[in-house]
Amino acid sequence: MLEITDIPVEGYEKVRRAVDPNCGFHAIIAVHSTVLGPALGGMRLWKYDSEDAALFDVKRLARGMTYKASCAGLDLGGGKSVLLGDPKDKSEAWFECMGEFVESFGGSYITAEDVNTKPEDMAIVHTKTDHVVGLAGRSGNPSPKTAWGCYLGLKAAAEEKFGTADLNGLTVAIEGAGSVGTVYGELIAKEGGKIIAADIYEDSAKRLADLTGGTVVGPDEIHGVDCDVYAPCALGGSINDQTIPQLKARVVCGAANNQLLEQRHGMELRERGILYAPDYVVNAGGLINVYNELVPGGYDEDRAMAQMDKIRENLLQIFALAREEGICTSVAADRFGDQRVAAAMASK
After folding, report:
1. Looking at the domain that runs over 143-284+311-339, which CATH code has it been given?
2. Residue 206 catalytic?
3. What pTM does this model have?
4. Which of 96, 156, 221, 258 shows its CA 20 to 30 Å from the CA of 328?
């Protein structure tokens, strides 16, 4: 029996915990905002140290989804779900429970795949709820589209920092050689960029290096390598007090969510002359792709790809705002996203 309880969190519309002791299920769903539309955000499976750690993560992720959708011009709010457990132990029962948990939100939260979850897991979730996207036969795996959006974002960042969108000859240090980081690296290498890869799984880093003609370094070394661009494509918080002094890159542009451990780290990057491409703007390609399952007429890849072109345009506007106002790009991105949310709230 699924036991669902509310967790009061200031500034969030709804945060809930669900457990089922019979199968070891333990999850949290956070809905940050539905002002622009239903909250859409992926389902992350991770072996958290504690429920507090999971709650910290899901809150940051849900808030980021609000801004990601707003900046991308989508009629969506922000939410996220985390499933606490070891990915090696995941079971069909967990995803059946997750489907029931998602259904309990009555459509205010829509889920999709994320770290350690796959389209086949979403198919199990779908047996208990219709509020799931990214299923096989529809928009499918969003990872390649997320990578494509990051590539477009990198071209905007290169234009801003180096005066040209041409990536030929740039050295990009990619931390996280998963499904998104690998495709991202391949796109960069195809344009003549050089790849340095790192991953907690050495085989993954080696595979990316082999695909791109790049090199491999350890996860503890990647922040300090000589490169033009540092691309965080793993978990969040990689821009912090320990890593910022190590950075030799002039641009940070990657796919990971919540790259800044704290908001102040955006200003610290600016003070060091490092251009930060705000993560929730850069990595919106996957969200844009699955959103197109929900619009009238159903999924259309050409329409989704055309919408992704706005990622580059939006970043250039955010960079210009940061220059004009003398603020860091992360604050500029928040202001950019706040505009649509504020307008929607005023209209209501």
Report:
1. 3.40.50.720
2. no
3. 0.90
4. 221
